Amino acid sequence: HHATADHYDLRLEIGGVLKSWAVPRGPSLNPADKRLAVETEDHPIEYIDFEGVIPEGEYGGGPMIVWDTGTWAPMEDVEESLRSGAFKFRLAGEKLNGGWMLT
Fold first, then answer.
1. Is the pLDDT reported for residue 2 higher than 80?
2. Could you tell me the CA-to-CA distances from 30 to 1, 35, 78, 96, 100 in Å, in that order?
3. Which of 67, 70, 14 is nearest to 45 (CA)?
4. Percent of the chain whose predicted confidence (pLDDT) is above 70
5. What Cα–Cα distance (Å) separates residue 36 from each residue in 4, 25, 33, 102?
C-alpha cells in the first residue's frame, strides 16, 4: 500500500497477533534475489483481511489491498529463529509458495 512509499506488507499470525514486515520492492520468486524486509509493529488479528483506504496523515495512509492469502508453517522454532535473525518458513498461498527466509 502507499504509506510514505508503495510497499508490500508480509503479515504472519504468530501468538495471536499479526507479526508484520514492510517489503518495499515486494517479493521475488527468484531464490537468488534478496529483498529488504523491515519489521514493523504487530497488528491485531482483525487486520488479516483488511482492504480499504487508510486516511492520509495516519500511519500507512493510502489505499491498501490484500495481494495474497494462504497459510504458513515454520521450518524451525519460531521464537528462536526470530531472535537469531534467521526466520525460515513455508508459504502456501494463492501466489506465493515454498520456503522463505527473513534475515
1. no
2. 23, 11, 24, 11, 11
3. 14
4. 95
5. 16, 7, 10, 9
% of the chain surpassing 90 pLDDT: 81
The grid coordinates listed for 50 are 483488511
34-64 pLDDT, tens digit each: 999 999 999 999 999 999 998 888 877 888 9
Each as own residue / partner, the long-range contacts of residues 69-78 (CB below 8 Å, 24 or more positions apart, any chain) are 69/93, 69/94, 70/94, 70/96, 70/97, 72/12, 72/13, 75/99, 78/14
